[in-house]
Amino acid sequence: MPRRPRNPPSIADQIALAADREGPDFDTAVLGLTLALFRTATAFERAHVTELLPHGLNIGQLNILTVLDRAAEPLTMGALGQAVSVLPANLTGVVDGLAGRGYVERIPNPSDRRSFLIRIGKGGRSFLRKFLPGHWAHLQNLMSDLTPAQRRQLQSLLGKFLESIEQNGKDTADGFHPDRVRRPARRGGAVST
User: Is residue 183 a contact partner of residue 191, using CB atoms and an 8 Å limit?
Assistant: First the structure.
């Protein structure tokens, strides 16, 4: 007879299991923070999917539109990629799709005839003027259990964490170099590299 499926382990259970397996030098806060960030990011993404699905957009596309809407001037693909934390090569298809809908425009780059600048299009600006008031209310509702001070603190901590990732993840193009990862030794002993 098949066993009934169990509920997935809680974050606390996963941390306890990892601590038992990895030994006393294992920093449980790193795993706890990682799991909490993944779950929070997934829930945040789901909340946006529900809001954006009727408009045929995803959170990445909305992020691009809002960045371009706030930009004082058209952006290069590199500057846009940096602003939305996406490599320019991965951005091309997204920009193409938004341009096809009239949400963004490509204009010749006067400084480099081989490239284009990207700016918000009339369709994108019109969409945002209608969409953003409800979106801000939606975000306010998602964060309603945090006080203003907690929101500022979370923003500050996430900013510091992002800086840490950007500073410490530059070993390779994808930010990961397995030979340079410091791993705690199992069950005491020296730290291995």
Answer: yes
Q: Taking the CB of residue 14, how many other CB atoms lie within 10 A of it?
A: 15
Contact call for residues 64 and 104 (beta carbons, < 8 A) = yes
**pLDDT at residue 2, rounded to an integer:** 66
| Distance (Å, whole) CA 15 – CA 112 | 52
DSSP code per residue over 83-104: HHT--HHHHHHHHHHHHHTTSE
Other beta carbons within 10 Å of 80: 23
- pLDDT, tens digit, 9 for 90 and up, residues 83-112: 998 887 889 999 999 999 999 999 999 998
Structure tokens belonging to residue 61: 């596309």
* First-residue to last-residue Cα distance in the chain: 47
What's the rounded Cα separation, in Å, for the pair 49 and 68? 21
Note if the pTM is more than 0.85. Answer: no
Q: Which value, in Å, is the radius of gyration of the alpha carbons in the chain?
A: 22
d(CA 181, CA 94): 33
Strand partners, 108: 116
